[in-house]
Amino acid sequence: MILPKTQKYFDWLLILLINFMWATQVPVIKLIGERLGPVAIAFIPMILSTLMFLPALWREQTKRKTRFQWRLEDVKHFLLAGLFGLFLLQLAYTLGSQRTLAANAGVITLTIPVFVAVAGSFLLNEKLNAVRVSGFLLALLGVLMTSVSDLRGSDFRHGNFVIGNLIFLLACTACGFYNAYCKLLVMRGYTELEILVYTSVIGSVASIPLFAWIEPFHFSSLATVDRVAFWGILELSFIVYGCSMLLFFYVLKRMDVTQAILGNYLLPFFISLLAVVVLREPITLPMIVGGIVILLSTLMVTVYEPDILAWTQRKRIARNPWQREQE
After folding, report:
1. Which is the most buried residue in 126, 174, 227, 268, by most CB within 10 A?
2. Angle between helices 267-278 and 25-32 (to 10 degrees)
């Protein structure tokens, strides 16, 4: 299906918006990090997000006059995405962040688009062409320019952080699997709300033992949180865990997950911008140039990929008249 340019530009803008929403997670978690434990920060917003969007799913199914039939095949799909994707991602992210440097985690996060590309290849038969590879490399160059502080502050030489690094790498692997598997669910005809709510239900149920044994939770602790923590939890629940994922699944209806996830490299740029606005940190020239480079790489892959491929094909045929006769 060939999409009009306006739709491609709209989807590209949505990719930018989605990654900005994801980037807000970092400063929000920093603001509420001393008020709640890491397990609560990871899973309370997921549980609240599930409760927020359940009525929307019920209304959607009422309007469509359909009810979800829990067939074994459906259960299998949502169990895989919910357990080995969403739940494992949040658990490993939380445990890994506690056991490694923030700079190490920032560098390891750069592997997420790679894991998505690998999972997309196996699960969805998506192919990496020259444009996508070039876009990945260009985006990586931009990330390196915007993440100088992470690179300088990282420490992969000493063994103190090996376990934490490996656990965080597992979180990135789970993220890659979850994104690719959600594209598979989109292709199977599930709606955005079905994918969000049902995978979140699985992840939320799986988190209950953590609140019982690892980080005992009491509802009274939520009643005593201050206004900052309250609004932070709501932002994570509604924006990060909810709206951003719905928009992401919406974009996946028209775009390969390998293309969509390239926008993930915008996270360091957006996080830096938020630090400038919220924390009054200085803006630097490498940050600006790196952000522009990443924006161009996402534009190249999400909007202009067919045009570039067609142009290279015409150039190849022009250089080889025999190939033109064959085609």
Report:
1. 268
2. 50
Burial class (CB within 10 angstroms; exposed 0-12, middle 13-18, buried 19+) of 207: buried
N-to-C CA span, the chain:
22
1 pLDDT band (50/70/90 cuts)?
A: low
Residue 228, pLDDT > 70, answer yes
Nearest in space to 146 (alpha carbons), one of 301, 4, 289, 244: 289
CA 140 to chain centre: 16
| CA–CA gap between residue 206 and residue 82 (Å, rounded) | 9
Contact 255, 298 (CB under 8 A): no
Distance CA(324)–CA(298), nearest Å, equals 31
- Cα–Cα distance, 116 to 120 (Å, whole number): 6
For residue 27, is pLDDT > 90? no
Which letter does DSSP use for residue 93 in this model? H
The number of residues making up the chain comes to 327
Rounded Cα distance between 279 and 48, Å, is 28
Q: Which two tokens stand for residue 145?
A: 């320019």
The torsion of the CA quartet 44, 113, 193, 47, rounded to 10 degrees, works out to -10
Q: Which of 90, 3, 102, 92 is nearest to 47 (CA)?
A: 90
- The predicted pLDDT at position 281 comes to 67
* Type of residue found at 89: L
Helix, strand, or coil (residue 20): helix
To 10 degrees, the CA torsion angle through 64, 65, 69, 73? -30
User: Residue ranges per domain, the chain?
Assistant: 5-320
